[in-house]
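Let us practice reading a record.
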Amino acid sequence: MPLKTLPLKPNGHMIHRTNNVKVMQFDEPQWPPMLRDHLFECSYCGQYFAPRITDDAVYVDSPCQHTDGITTVVTLEVPSGKIVVTDDLRPLYSVDRHDLASYNSALGQAQYIEAMAAIGCAYGPVGNTCPGLYRTGGNSYIIACPEYDYEDNEKPSLPESDCIADICTDLWAYSIADHDHWKARGGDTDALGWSGSIVEIPAGTYQFTHHTGERGFDRDAPGTVIFAHIEKIA
């Protein structure tokens, strides 16, 4: 089963890490050539397809509609002046993913973030990173992972005094809701567990700008990795 390297023409889609792909060619004429080590759906738009293989290149015929990735912006009302911060607020906040794009894509995750915000939960995927909620100003915050300088007694790139909540990401996400809204849906402070926090912030409307769906976002990048910016807007 010989392998042939061909240039990839992805038409804006993300289905492989490089511009060249390996093509398996079968001895049996009834078997068409196949790609090796590629994604079957685009990491940006979630479209599922079979690339067209020719003698000179591998083509994706339909263009991607989200070639720059997606920055997702949602709002959360916090009239109580307190928020619940954790990774997982299910089943009190949960939406059906059946009609959404693949969650493995930036589009699917953006749709899920928007659907969760619509029912009162600021949600965002962050991987298994255990980030923190950090205050950056009077009414501004970030969800981020600091870099640690192991030559300087593991001094983090973000002041520990600015961290107002740690997030244990067993769910690989953060979930934040207004305390009273969460209580009204059946939230139990005693059952919140060690991984959840209740934090006081000024009452108002907060805008969450989530970045993990953006093109080139790297949660393993050196330095401070910021998953979301949070700003009080009203």
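A brief commentary: The first helix runs from residue 106 to 118.
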